[in-house]
Amino acid sequence: MVWVQTKTKSELTLHLQQFSVPYEFPVYFTEGLFHTDNSALVDALCRLETDKRHKVVIFLDDGLSAANPDLLARIDAYVDHHAAYIEMVAPPVLVPGGEKIKSDIHFVEQMQQTLYDYRIDRHSYAIAIGGGAVLDAVGLVAATTHRGVRHIRVPSTVLSQNDSGVGVKNGVNLYGAKNYIGTFSPPFAVLNDIDFVMGLGTRDKIAGMAEAVKVALIRDAGFFDWLEQNADPLATFEKQAMAHLIRRCAELHMHQIGHGGDPFEMGSARPLDYGHWSAHKLEGLTRYHVRHGEAVAIGIALDARYSVLSGLLGAGAETRICFLLEHLGFKLWHPALEKRTAEGTLELMIGLQEFREHLGGELTITLLSDIGIGIEVHQMDTDLVLQSIAWLKARQES
After folding, report:
1. Is residue 160 domain-shared with residue 238, that is, in the same domain?
2. Domain around 356
3. Is residue 25's pLDDT more than 50?
4. Is the pLDDT of residue 150 over 50?
5. Beta bridge partner(s), residue 13
6. Is residue 38 one of the residues assigned to a domain?
7. 1, pLDDT greater than 60
8. What is the rounded distance in angstroms from the CA atom of residue 280 to the CA atom of residue 210?
9. Could you tell me if residue 14 is inside a domain?
10. pTM of this prediction?
11. Which residues have CB under 8 Å from 390's CB, separation 6+?
12. Which residue has the higher pLDDT, 373 or 19?
């Protein structure tokens, strides 16, 4: 609905226009996505128009392709089997995974060129298959081509299936700033295939579980209890446990985005970024040798200890949180936490200012008042941050 309100004062006329746009997209949880009898992808493509052949371009994470040598053949077989509904205009385009695709704008331009060359329009599809970085970059390309072509995400990692893949953000890095160029643009659909997760290496499986701990800590104490009770099957990557972790984590993220009142982050609060202010800086300080999930786990532990020191969280809760993270396989210390500039400033505290600038508005950090309950604060005490770092280092050395 569009309505116009007119206000007149002297020679000034103000027309105030307001409208709302509802968003809806399906998130599928499946396995064997490219088995010919799995209808999830066809269902997603056809959810608005059921009686046409849909033009698609697929961008495929080259690391995922290398780890699954038969994936290209399975995609081809799937498309052939469902040729009445899918027109794949070119073989899947291999793109680099990880921070590489996000750190060179050339890859964005190449993908836009591909969509241009194959005349992908606003009713055609750009499908991204891969980890969170690939989804971020392809999402940006889709959102800015013709002001938005339909984008389907096929996340292949724990982190992208339970967090970023079901969100509404896209972006790449520029000027050394993480996600400096980006959009808020919801996908057309998300297809989570647990088989991709089960084929990951150990480090990637572990890293993605940090976001589940994070969202449990700020929104769902019962889920945190479940994570503790199932730490053994999760630490050994039992399929059913991993599938439940991913689904519940995704549900909590989607609920926050859909019902938290600020899906496009117009305000200053970012509850889903609990543990992230230091994590983003730590990633950069280590030149991304510390992966996002690993940095988030350290950030969670740091902010849990800070929450206790600042009197917000009961003593002992931070130890409980760290024990779970360590049980899942995380290391909660890195020497870069103590890195200082030539002038003696703690690099991590510079990250706090960068975090505020990225979010806009006043500094807003989510801490904990209890397991399952996040609380917003607007300043961080440097001395307490230092004490929290020292506490983590002492844990690592004990």
Report:
1. no
2. 202-397
3. yes
4. yes
5. 8
6. yes
7. no
8. 14
9. no
10. 0.90
11. none
12. 373
